[in-house]
Every structure is written in structure tokens, then in C-alpha cells.
Specification:
Elements (H helix, E strand, L loop, with lengths): L1 H8 L3 H19 L4 H16 L3 H19 L5 H15 L3 H17 L5 H16 L3 H18 L7 H14 L3 H18 L10
Helix pairs in contact: 1-2, 2-3, 3-4, 3-5, 4-5, 5-6, 5-7, 6-7, 7-8, 7-9, 8-9, 9-10
Length: 207
């Protein structure tokens, strides 16, 4: 499995998926589905399959991973937020935005129901905002992005690079709503964080 992750980091995704598939088969035989050893391979494999556009292969595995999370963690564990937004991301990559929004809303609803404030909940709100931006639903996108930023500021310093994507989203939304000065200020804030965090490439996450 570690070899497959190395291949993925090198951009050799097709090879990584092949190795991950073999690893998944082996771990399923050894441990069954309801073990973390199998779930970590499922999550990695579905991620790489989605990147390759192999959605018909990825969706059943994402659902399989979601069932495994229930068995491993129980029905109300915060880890289920991750399962919902992973499915939503796959739908978004496939340009199936109705399904993507539905899964992202499941993720944020689960995060709210469990009073979750962690990396996974910020990703859920941020990815919901991204889907809503694509759908030009600016007011709801703004609420989701503001929630993501609120949680990020609880978890990390205000100049942490994780702020950049959300500030960029909020700037994009403000611009779409005609608030151009606010949009510019938000984009500048994102770029300033980039200059500090990534001096070699300050525009990595902010236009």
C-alpha cells in the first residue's frame, strides 16, 4: 500500500490504482471490510479513481467505504462527514452537481448534528461552498464558506495557509454579488498569506 501512495505522489496514478486494487483485495481477505486497515485503502483508491475519471468504478467503492465506517465507528461518529464529502467530491468531479450538492449537505448536516469542528468539517463546508459557487447560488455559497472560515479560525492561526482557499471563495462570491472592494480585499488577504506561507509561489491557491 505504501508503494501505491508513492506512485500516486509521483503522478503515476494508473499504476497507483492497480497496486491499490491488489492491496485492497489482500486486506479484504485478511481483515474483512470493517477494519481500518481495509478502509484506508478504500479511501485512497476511490480518491485516485476519481482523479482519473473512473467514476463508475469509484462510486460503488465510496459506498462500500461508507458502510464500513458505520460498522467501525457507529452511526454518529464525526468520520462519517468525510464519507459524505468524498462522495460529493466524486460527483462534483463527474459534473453531477445535483448529487454533489446532496452529498455535501449530508456532510455539513452530520457535522452540525455532532457539533463537529475539525479538518473534515471545514472540508465539508468548503466543498459545499465550491459546489454552490459552480451553481451560482451565491447566498448559500457565502454562508457555507463563512462557516468554513469560522471553523478554520478556531482550529488554526488566522494567517494559516488553510485560510487561502476559503478567502478566495469569499472573494469570488463577493465579486459575483457586486461587492468589488470586499472581493479585492479578500483576494489580497489570501495572497498575503500565500506570500508568507509559499514565498516561491504565493499565488498557489489564490488568483
Amino acid at each position: 500500500f505504501d508503494w501505491s501512495l508513492s506512485l500516486a505522489l509521483q503522478g503515476r496514478k494508473s499504476e497507483a490504482v492497480e497496486v491499490m486494487g491488489r492491496s485492497l483485495k489482500l486486506r479484504t481477505q485478511l481483515f474483512g471490510d470493517d477494519r481500518l486497515e481495509t478502509l484506508e485503502v478504500l479511501d485512497a483508491l476511490t480518491w485516485e479513481m476519481s482523479d482519473l475519471g473512473r467514476f463508475d468504478d469509484a462510486f460503488p467503492l465510496i459506498e462500500r467505504a461508507a458502510r464500513a465506517r458505520v460498522k467501525i465507528y457507529g452511526p454518529r461518529h464525526p468520520m462519517h462527514t468525510s464519507g459524505f464529502f468524498r462522495m460529493g467530491l466524486a460527483y462534483a468531479k463527474a459534473n453531477r452537481l445535483d448529487e454533489a450538492e446532496k452529498e455535501m449537505r449530508k456532510a455539513t448536516a452530520h457535522a452540525e448534528a455532532t457539533a463537529q469542528c475539525d479538518l473534515y468539517s471545514t472540508l465539508a463546508y468548503g466543498n459545499l461552498a465550491e459546489v454552490l459557487i459552480r451553481r451560482k447560488n451565491w447566498s448559500e455559497a457565502r454562508r457555507a464558506a463563512e462557516k468554513a472560515l469560522e471553523q478554520k479560525r478556531v482550529l488554526w492561526p488566522k494567517d494559516h495557509p488553510r485560510m487561502m482557499s476559503t478567502l478566495t471563495q469569499l472573494g469570488q462570491i463577493a465579486g459575483a454579488e457586486g461587492q468589488f472592494e470586499k472581493a479585492l480585499a479578500l483576494q489580497i488577504e489570501a495572497v498575503e498569506i500565500g506570500k508568507k506561507s509559499y514565498p516561491e509561489d504565493p499565488y498557489r491557491y489564490a488568483p
